[in-house]
């Protein structure tokens, strides 16, 4: 029994120690559980906070996406509206341009039709009227817008006008020359002025200018004579009666007060025609301007101007 008692004490001691250790372990476990529970609460709170932030972020993203979609729809709608407006304006502009083109074509067609009718009337005037009345057709031709005529019609009218000018112009020129030979200066001036308005060939125009200048000179219309005589003397420097024209031109300049031009004309006549019948008149004019140098001192004085016309150059 004595041996059993110490063993029982040791056993009880060990049991008590184990109980204490178990109690300590239970306390530690309880503390660990409390710590774990606290940490779990913290993690749960953090998770809740993260979840809330996630919800807010998602909502913000959805709202931003929705805003972008709305903005995109608005932009696309505005772009389509602008494109539709631009197309409408372009189409309206095309309609206006087409209407203007149609009106222009109508106007051109009407003008062309009127020009063709006028051309037909002009051609009839140039072919059916008697005598010089056919010249009315030439006057009417100048008033027609020939750009609206067909090339063939234009050519026919122009050829007919040229032939008519030559035919009637020759008659008018001969009448003027006949009046010149009769010394009927007003009739000469009338016929030859009319002839020059017919756009004659240069040779006939120069011949008419000589006769017309001479008629003006004899009529003492010196300003008009200067224009025609200048045209004759400058247009044909080899003309047979150019010296006579220079003499009349010189005296016309004197009569209108153009002394310098009169002297220059006298010098030209004196130098160009040494054997002219009017040489003494050139010398006389030069002597009156500069007797020491202009001409020989022995030259006699000349008459101031002829009183009868010279013969025709043809």
In what range is the share of β-strand residues?
under 5%
Q: Please, how many helices? A: 9
Along the chain, the helix and strand elements come as HHHHHHHHH
Mean pLDDT value:
81
Q: Between the first and last Cα atoms, what is the distance in angstroms? A: 195 Å
Question: Rg to the nearest angstrom?
Answer: 62 Å
Name the poorly predicted regions.
Answer: 292-308
The coarse silhouette is: rod-shaped
**Topology, number of strands:** 0
**What's the story with the biggest beta sheet?**
none
Percent in helix: over 70%
Structural class: mainly alpha
Question: In terms of topology, how is this protein built?
Answer:
Layout: H1 4-128, H2 135-141, H3 151-181, H4 185-196, H5 202-218, H6 222-235, H7 242-255, H8 259-272, H9 279-289
Helix pairs in contact: 1-2, 1-3, 2-3, 3-4, 3-5, 4-5, 5-6, 6-7, 7-8, 8-9
């Amino acid at each position: 029994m004595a041996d059993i008692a110490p063993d029982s004490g040791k056993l009880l001691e060990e049991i008590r120690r184990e109980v204490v250790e178990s109690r300590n372990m239970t306390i530690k476990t309880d503390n660990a559980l409390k710590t774990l529970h606290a940490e779990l609460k913290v993690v749960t709170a953090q998770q809740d906070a993260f979840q809330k932030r996630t919800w807010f972020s998602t909502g913000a993203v959805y709202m931003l996406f929705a805003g972008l979609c709305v903005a995109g729809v608005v932009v696309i709608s505005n772009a389509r509206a602008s494109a539709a407006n631009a197309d409408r304006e372009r189409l309206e502009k095309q309609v206006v341009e087409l209407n203007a083109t149609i009106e222009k074509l109508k106007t051109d067609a009407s003008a062309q039709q009127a020009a063709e009718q006028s051309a037909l009337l002009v051609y009839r005037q140039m072919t059916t009227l008697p005598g010089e009345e056919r010249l009315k057709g030439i006057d009417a031709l100048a008033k027609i817008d020939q750009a609206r005529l067909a090339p063939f019609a234009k050519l026919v009218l122009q050829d007919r006008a040229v032939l008519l000018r030559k035919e009637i112009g020759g008659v008018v020129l001969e009448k003027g020359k006949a009046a010149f030979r009769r010394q009927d200066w007003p009739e000469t001036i009338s016929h030859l002025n009319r002839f020059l308005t017919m756009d004659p060939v240069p040779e006939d125009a120069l011949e008419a200018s000589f006769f017309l200048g001479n008629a003006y000179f004899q009529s003492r219309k010196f300003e008009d004579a200067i224009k025609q005589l200048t045209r004759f003397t400058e247009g044909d420097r080899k003309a047979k009666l150019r010296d006579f024209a220079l003499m009349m031109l010189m005296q016309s300049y004197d009569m209108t007060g153009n002394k310098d031009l009169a002297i220059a004309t006298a010098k030209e006549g004196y130098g160009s025609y040494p054997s002219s019948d009017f040489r003494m008149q050139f010398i006389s004019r030069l002597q009156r301007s500069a007797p020491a140098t202009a001409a020989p001192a022995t030259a006699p004085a000349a008459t101031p101007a002829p009183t009868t016309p010279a013969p025709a150059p043809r």
